[in-house]
């Protein structure tokens, strides 16, 4: 018996953006919608502390800004990174000089924190997509094995663990964070 196939039109990016937001957020690529997993304890503390650590240095000096769970729509895709960091001069603003609600540019630095039920390959594809669109730096944090995979344009990914040092965007100067220090945040 031959099954009949139906052609179902793929959802366009414009149609996706008209849909109501979901909790947790959904992302769009090539007609497919993928809902992110609900953040849990380890994910939440890493996201909060990283945002604070980056913004303590960058916001005061007006060099960059780290934003959590921000929808970024660019290159035919709509993503919601755990952290999206933008160089200060690239932050979209309204006519009144306030931060824009819609970001239609790639982040300069994308940070993703792997959740237990997430596919590492799917998250890596998102980071690589961003790098190919102009993002300067990508981190994939895996709290299970306490490592961070670093992505940069035209370089093989590298994995940092234990006492190794993580660096941010070049514009951040000598800002550093050790892998050990970051994962120590998981012990209150």
Task: List SSEs in N-to-C order.
Answer: HEEHEEEEEHEEEEEH
| CATH architectural type | Alpha-Beta Complex
Q: Kindly report the average pLDDT value.
A: 93
- DSSP helix fraction: 25-40%
CATH homologous superfamily label = tt1808, chain A
CA-based gyration radius: 18 Å
Portion of residues in beta strands equals 25-35%
CATH T-level topology: tt1808, chain A
Main-sheet strand order equals 3-6-7-8-9-10
The domain tally reads 1
Q: Show unreliable segments.
A: 1-8
Instruction: Sketch the major β-sheet.
Output: 6 strands, mixed
Structure annotation, total helices:
4
Oligomer: single chain
CATH class: Alpha Beta
> How many β-strand runs?
12
What class, by secondary structure content?
alpha+beta
Give the termini distance in whole angstroms: 61 Å
Notes on the structure:
This protein is of the alpha+beta class and 188 residues long. It has one domain (22-184): tt1808, chain A (Alpha-Beta Complex), CATH 3.90.1570.10. It is 25% helix and 27% strand. The strands form three sheets. It has a six-stranded mixed sheet with strand order 3-6-7-8-9-10. A four-stranded antiparallel sheet has the order 2-1-5-4. The longest helix is centred in the N-terminal third of the chain and has 21 residues, at 41-61. It is globular. It starts with 12 loop residues before the first helix and ends with a helix. 24% of the residues are buried. The model is unreliable at 1-8 (pLDDT under 50).
């Amino acid at each position: 018996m031959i099954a009949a196939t139906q052609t179902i039109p793929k959802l366009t990016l414009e149609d996706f953006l008209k849909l109501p937001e979901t909790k947790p957020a959904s992302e769009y690529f090539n007609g497919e919608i993928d809902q992110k997993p609900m953040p849990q304890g380890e994910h939440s503390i890493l996201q909060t502390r990283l945002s604070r650590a980056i913004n303590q240095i960058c916001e005061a000096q007006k060099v960059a800004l780290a934003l959590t769970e921000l929808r970024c729509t660019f290159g035919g895709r709509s993503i919601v990174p755990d952290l999206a960091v933008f160089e200060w001069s690239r932050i979209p603003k309204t006519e009144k000089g306030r931060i824009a609600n819609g970001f239609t540019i790639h982040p300069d630095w994308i940070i993703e924190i792997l959740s237990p039920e997430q596919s590492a390959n799917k998250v890596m594809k998102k980071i690589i997509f961003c790098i190919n669109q102009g993002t300067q730096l990508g981190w994939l944090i895996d709290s299970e094995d306490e490592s961070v995979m670093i992505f940069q344009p035209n370089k093989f990914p590298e994995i940092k663990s234990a006492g190794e040092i993580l660096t941010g965007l070049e514009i951040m100067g000598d800002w550093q964070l050790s892998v050990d220090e970051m994962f120590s945040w998981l012990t209150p």
